[in-house]
Amino acid sequence: MKILLIINKQKPASIVLASEIRETLKGEGCAVEIYPLDGADISNGGFDVAFSLGGDGTVLFAARKMAVFGTPIIPLNLGTIGFIASVNPSRWLDVFSGWREGKLPVSERLMLDVKVERDGRAVFKLTGLNDAVISASGIAKTIWLDAWTENTHIGSYRSDGLIAATPTGSTAYSSSAGGPIIDPEIEAVILNPICPFSMLYRPIVLPAERPVTIKIGTEQRSGVLLTIDGQVTESLEPGDLVVIMRSVNKARLVACDRAAFYNALHSKLAWAVGKNDGWGHDA
Predict the structure, then answer these.
(1) DSSP string, 135-184
(2) Does domain 2-109+250-268 have CATH number 3.40.50.10330?
(3) 3-state secondary structure at position 4
(4) Where are the alpha helices (DSSP H) in the chain?
(5) How many CB atoms lie within 10 A of CB 282?
(6) pLDDT band at 41 (very low <50, low <70, confident <90, very high)
(7) To pair with 98 at 20 to 30 A between CA atoms, which of 9, 30, 132, 158?
(8) pLDDT tens digits for 221-240?
(9) In angstroms, rounded to a whole number, what is the distance separating the alpha carbons of residues 52 and 176?
(10) pLDDT tens readout for residues 81-123
(11) What is residue 162's predicted lDDT score, i.e. its pLDDT?
(12) Would you tell me which CATH number, out of the four given (2.60.200.30, 3.40.190.10, 3.30.10.20, 3.30.2310.20), belongs to the domain 112-246?
């Protein structure tokens, strides 16, 4: 069995844990490779499973790298939030054994293919798990955007930007901007304006099978940036089209089913602060 450990070297605990995992699994006859976040591109697959050792950001990085190969990811939480990285590091061997024996669920998460078209040609392409954000590059600057789904005009936005988020990303930036939280295994896209000029603007949830096209207004008072998963940025120009559509690839997360997601809501957002009878009534 071939195993990849994706580590965040800024978290010293990930280096220590990676060494433990590698030595343990090598003792079981597995081939183990370690890949840092700042490493060169993974040019080929062939891994049976990948461990993500860090926080949610490390899982996002791992998903972008591994989804094309269909490699399942065991997301160990060495961060502070842990909506996606939900596996306690002390349980890594139990979770790995459960996955290997086929006893643990693998949650398949929607990812978005994001393409920038300029003068009729593609100048940027990337797949993300959480979101694609179009925003002003300057502080407190308003930008002008237009959005369509297929041939239907959704709206013209005057705002600090626009977030296109997956259900997995619904608990991230989109939620902070007032967007809804969506069950992570539903296939939908949230289109959510950031600090819109008019309070009449509201987030909208769209079916994932319909591509969304966002046009950058031709007159802007600020530079405009596209950011994928909060990690990869691309400068945009007036008149650019940002096309967002459901990817054929999915992030495959081990032990991150609906129960784990709702447990995260309970623990991280205090949705279950008291004891009840299981039906929402105080016991």
Answers:
(1) EESSTT--EEEEEEETTEEEEEEEESEEEEE-SGGGGTHHHHTTPPP--T
(2) yes
(3) strand
(4) 12-26, 56-66, 92-100, 173-176, 258-268
(5) 7
(6) low
(7) 9
(8) 889 999 999 999 999 999 99
(9) 25
(10) 778 988 999 999 999 999 999 999 899 999 999 999 999 999 9
(11) 97
(12) 2.60.200.30
Q: Where are the domains of the chain?
A: 2-109+250-268, 112-246
What is the tens place of the pLDDT at every residue in 50-79? Answer: 999 999 999 999 999 999 999 999 999 997
Average pLDDT, the chain: 91
- The tokens of 6 are what? 């994706």
The closest alpha carbon to 42, from 71, 13, 81, belongs to 71
Q: Is the pLDDT of residue 139 over 60?
A: yes
- At 189, list the tokens: 């896209």
Task: Quote the pLDDT of residue 283.
Answer: 46
Torsion of CA 57, 63, 64, 66, to 10 degrees: 140
What number is the average pLDDT over the span 22-47? 86
With bands split at pLDDT 50, 70 and 90, how would you rate the model's confidence at 245?
very high
Global pTM? 0.91
Q: Is 140 exposed, middle or buried (0-12, 13-18, 19+ CB in 10 A)?
A: exposed
| Contact call for residues 235 and 223 (beta carbons, < 8 A) | yes
Sheet containing 2-7: order of strands: 31-36, 2-7, 49-54, 73-77, 251-254, 106-109
Q: Amino acid identity of 81?
A: I
Instruction: Give the total residue count for the chain.
Output: 283
56 is catalytic: yes
Contact criterion met (CB below 8 Å) for 157 and 193: yes
